[in-house]
């Protein structure tokens, strides 16, 4: 009986220690400034590189009601300056292991039947571009777009970030910040905000509006009045 009590006591103590350790852990993969998923409930997102949920083509998307709440909470401010901006200040594409960088990981995530060569470059597959609905079978015709462009991020708050935060923003596969789209649609978009450019395929507006709002909310970026108005219009195209 005495031996049984000692073993049980040790097991209970170990369980308590494990519980405390788990409760105190944080997600080291989350980008700087990301909400704590334990404290924020619906603001949590799938792990980096994880696939999208439901009918969405991007990971980490919030629902329409949550997107409206986040949009209302975003700080409205005039367009910021481009002084000091350089794409080189946003490290991309980051290495993701096994010779793969962020671009190649997103290409595989967003495509179907993607095969790679020994250097992790996509050599075949099928991709459907969210912006224009075009189906592509050549990886060279696809770009990896930053939902909120790096320059737009700079104008709306990233100018004050450190290098680590900018790198996280430029390589974020947890939130809906990166997606494979046709090179033509990506270059048409450039660094423009939603009031100045909208995806030509209007059926994508609901996802686009939710994704843009999610990213700006996660990173604490500002919006302009025209930008906020157009995002509202996009969210109004959602069925729920």
Question: What is shown here, in short?
Answer:
This protein has helices spanning 2-23, 37-40, 64-73, 102-110, 150-155, 163-170, 183-189, 205-218, 225-235; strands at 95-97, 100-101, 112-116, 122-128, 135-136, 142-146, 178-182. It has 240 residues and is of the alpha+beta class. It has one domain (46-235).
Outline the structure in words.
The protein is of the alpha+beta class and 240 residues long. It has one domain (46-235). 38% of the residues lie in helices and 12% in strands. It contains nine helices and seven strands. Helix 8 (205-218) crosses helix 9.
Please describe the topology of this protein.
Elements: H1 2-23, H2 37-40, H3 64-73, E1 95-97, E2 100-101, H4 102-110, E3 112-116, E4 122-128, E5 135-136, E6 142-146, H5 150-155, H6 163-170, E7 178-182, H7 183-189, H8 205-218, H9 225-235
Antiparallel strand pairs: 1-2, 3-4, 4-5, 6-7
Helix pairs in contact: 3-8, 3-9, 8-9
